Amino acid sequence: MIELRQLAKSFGPNRVLAGIDLDVPRGESLVIIGGSGTGKSVLLKCILGLVQPDSGIIRLDGQDVTRLPRDAFLGRFGMLFQGGALFDSLPVWQNVAFRHLKDGMPRAEAKARAIETLARVGLPARTADLYPAELSGGMQKRAALARAIAAQPEVIFFDEPTAGLDPIMAGVINQLIREAVTQLGATAVTITHDMTTVRTVADRVALLHDGLLRWVGPASELDRSGDPYVDQFIHGRPDGPIAPLR
Q1: 20-59 b/e with 16+ CB inside 10 Å = b?
Q2: pLDDT tens-digit profile of 167-180?
Q3: Which of 14, 42, 161, 173 suits 137 as a labelling partner, its CA being 20 to 30 A distant?
Q4: CA-to-CA dists, residue 143 to 1, 38, 55, 226, angstroms
Q5: Which domain holds residue 165?
Q6: DSSP label of 243
């Protein structure tokens, strides 16, 4: 579904991506792990066209993304942003139904669909008319997840989906992500440094460090990968090939 070939991106002298080769099969849940500042978010933004790579090829379903109509291309994606990124001035239902409303769906129908989607992530109908500021952090994250899946996208990106959540709510969000991806049959790419998220949602795992994918393999092989980068990261060891940022 997603093919990356020699994808490279630098910001001035800072090399962020140094030639990424990656295939994400249709229907797979891939989790990209790595420390803060290793380029995980930049990788997603390159695929979406929010950041222009310096070189390399990005294909979606076999087609060069630079040759696809922009609106049609982005319409195939859903995105759960790290901070939720809900529109503060819109009630929750309009956040969830944002794409439907943009595409001209009648408001009554769009609201009904938003309420149905909110129910899928465990939010009652009464939250539809509330504003994001009236929701707890966990409820905001659920609403953002509802927005990401509302239009039943083919591909969903999750950017640090459990950031800032307590362990119990993080577990709830992880389970909702797993269920949403399975039910939709969507291709999913999650970026995180939370190993609980990795073990809950991943079919396959890729470790990004110093601009390169150091290891890619099944989630079931994570604990016996034999790779020093993976071993250090998943156990949180201070010593190893990954030097802490200073």
Answers
A1: bebebeeebbbbbbbbeebbbbbbbbbbbeebebeebebb
A2: 888 888 888 888 88
A3: 42
A4: 27, 28, 36, 39
A5: 28-55+70-235
A6: P
